[in-house]
Each structure stands twice: as structure tokens, then as C-alpha cells.
TrEMBL record:
Keyword list, A-Z: Glycoprotein, Glycosidase, Hydrolase, Membrane, Signal, Transmembrane, Transmembrane helix
Pfam families: Glyco_hydro_18
Protein name: Chitinase-3-like protein 2
GO cellular-component term (any): extracellular region
Gene: LOC100745372
Lineage summary: Eukaryota, Metazoa, Ecdysozoa, Arthropoda, Hexapoda
Membrane spanning stretches: 27-47
Domain GH18: 110-468
Presence of keyword Transmembrane helix: yes
GO molecular function: chitin binding; chitinase activity
One of the GO biological process terms: chitin catabolic process
Family according to the record: Belongs to the glycosyl hydrolase 18 family.
UniProt entry tagged with the keyword Acetylation: no
InterPro entries to which the protein is assigned, alphabetical: Chitinase_II/V-like_cat, Chitinase_insertion_sf, GH, Glyco_hydro18_cat, Glyco_hydro_18_chit_AS, Glycosyl_Hydrlase_18
Superkingdom of source: Eukaryota
Amino acid sequence: MVNQIPVPQAKYELLTDVRQPRWRTQVLCLALVSLILGVLFVTRAWLGIVILRSPRAKTLDTETLTDNAKIATWLRRARMYAESTKENQNADRNNSISSPQHYNTNSSGQIIVCYYTISSDLNTFWELSPSHIDPDLCTHIIVGFAGVVNCSLDLGSNSSIYKEVIALKKLQPQLRVMISAGGSNELHLGFSEMVKNHANRKRFIRSVLNVTKTFGFDGLDLDWEFPAWLGADEREKLHFVQLLEELRREFYRATKTLILSVAVAAPQAIVDQSYMVAEMAKYVDFVNLMSYDYHFYVWYYPITGLNAPLFSHAAESGYLSTLNVNYSVHYWLSKGMPREKLIVGIPTYGHNYRLDNPQNHDLLAPANGFGELGKMGFVSYPTVCEFLQNGAKSVFKHESKVPYAYKDREWISYDDVTSVYYKAEWIRRNNFGGAMILSLNVDDWNNTCKFNESFPLTRTVSKILRYQAD
């Protein structure tokens, strides 16, 4: 006799038999998907590390950068500028602010601020002795970089070099020589600790007054990159203004009135996060706008770009259209920095890329690392000249008023005499405070470029701002 199962129970058992294997299948699929995603995530992270550390990319981790202080600061700033592109979600995309305005007034008061970096200490691996500097080129020479250690200005072991640069004033009494605090010590949070409270700031100011009096410096430049940026304490922005106010007060009381300047960022996202511009303007004599490093090879944005374009080009839109000198300068003006206090940065170095395909060598071409020339993406102007002498082709982007050069897989964005001329003329006609050169070290000081004169880029700026009438 066959046992009969009531119909409702039969339906229930049938439903159970059908659902049970589906539930198991779903769990198995979910586990497989999770495993695949996990593998992909780990693989991507591993590839990123390999790319960042590979010789082809020539980049280094933070600890290595600290040891390799000759290039660490420039590389760190370039990377933070690149990071600002990812942090721009709150930035205003309306770039109408960048419309050029022309003020054809007498610009005889414009200054030329030239950075000279001590190669044994940081920032540059291109040797330049103070004895090779033309004292008539610049109105101001800023020597860098001193550290901020234990809330005090620390010159390290380079006292003799500082003295040699200051001695140039004997040849040109109108020259002003300043000391810059910043550089590789920023990796050790020197500024953050120093500005934290009044006592720490007072200790720093006392050390500054001691150093400037002992050596005969004409002032101080602060190169903090950057207050309150990317997870730092937001109060650093306020503390920085307090430091400037306290420095200004003590500088007025000094035996001779000292000059106070600040090296400041160009990208809008960093400006908004790091500076109280209108308040800063009350206390500084001028700001040195770091209007370069707008484009630099990074693995998450692996395409060629211009280091320091004067204007944007047609292929750029949105935030990318703000990454140029013209926009940055007018943005600083809109935030409250007076025109006469804006010193516009001009680089004497370029950035290089390794092209994916040597046949694709225009702007926005795919790249897979730094080029072979120079070091970790930085190329001095003499190296660019040698590149061109060895058969590289130069292309001048008239929209942006800067050139780039390429040969095989090497691609370099740089400034030449023509682009520097355009920038200096633009600075002069708009009656900004002047131009800043970064740096004398990487200009062609020993005539590699065959112009029959030293420092051709800096000299071009000097001729226009100091000796050319309207």
C-alpha cells in the first residue's frame, strides 16, 4: 500500500526541494564574487606598489625620499599638486575668473625673486656655486632651505654657503638676500609643531631674529607645503596667520625692517583648504606663487601634460581648465591678495614622461612612467637643451604659450626663452608684483644651451621686467 501525502504537504516538500539548492547556489556565487573582488583588489594594490617602486617609474616611497633630500621636496610638492586634482570636488568649475585683464601702467617697481637651493641640503642635484651667480640678475635671492627643528630655524651645516650668497651684496648693494624655511624638514612636521601655540611660535621668531641679525639676511621666506592639507589639523590655517602676524610685529621692531614672504600653492583646491588669503595679505610683503607642477606623471593619471602653461588649451574642461598660471593668479586676486604682492612663479626645469607609444606624442598621450633623462620626472633646462641638440623635436603650444619636446619614448614639458618671454610680458602688462624663478640652479648657468650668456631664462625675465619700458 502506498502512503498518500496530502496535497498541501506535497506542495510544501516540493517547494523546499526546489528552494534549498537555489539558496546554496546563491551563497556559493556570493562567495565566489567576493573572492574574485578580493583578488582583484589585492592585485590592483600590488600593481600600484610595483608601479610606484619600479625603476621604470623611478618613484620612491616616503622614507627613501627623506634620505634622498636633494629631490624630495620638489617631488613631494608635485605629488600633492596631483593629489589636489582628486580633492577638487568642492572647487568652483566656473573659470570665468581667469579672463585676462591688462593694466598698462609703469611696472618699474616689479621685482625678480630668485630661489637658490643648497644642493647638499635638499631640493636640487644640479651644482651651482654662489660665485657663479650674477648679482645683477635678481632683485631678491632666496636661499633655501633651512629647517624647522624643535620650533627653531635650523641652518644645518651650510653656514658658509649662506655667507657666500650674502657676500654678493657687496657686488650689488641693491640686492636683497633672504633665507627660506621649509624643504625636506616638512616631512618631519616641523611647521605643524611650531605653529601649534604661541610659545612655540615665539621660540621660532626669536631664532629667526637671531639668524637674520647674525648673518645679515634681509628677510624670511616661509615655504610650508601645505597648512591644513589632506587630513592635517584644520586649525593650522589660522595658526599660520597668527605666525605671520607675530613675525610682522617683531620684524617692524627689528634694527632694520625685515622682509616677509610666503611660498604659496597654485591649485584652487589647495588654496581653499590651506590659506586665509585676505588675512595673510595684511602681514606679508609678497607671496611667491608656485605656478608650476600643474601636470606631473602619476600612476592614476598616466597621460602627458604641461608643467606650467600660461593659459589652458581647448582639450581641457572643468577643473583641468584651472590648472594654468593665468587662472591661479586671478584666483589669488579674487581671494584678496593685492596685485602688487603677487609674485608669479616661473620654472627653469621641466617634467618628463615615458610614452606608451612613441608614435603618439601629443598632449594627453598615454604614458607609463618618468622618462630616462633628469631624475624622477624633473629635468633641468640644460638637459632639455642637450635633448634638443640630440635630435628631439620641439612643439610650441600657442594656446598655452609653452613648448614640449619628444624623441622616441621620451616626452618633456618645459619652459624656454620664448615661453618665459610671454610670461614676463604678461606679468609686466598686468602689473603684478613681479616674477619668481625656481631656480637659479636649474637654469643654464654654464652655457650648455649655446646662447652665449649665462642664465638665459632668468635673464629674459630680468630684461623685460627691469629694463623694458611700456
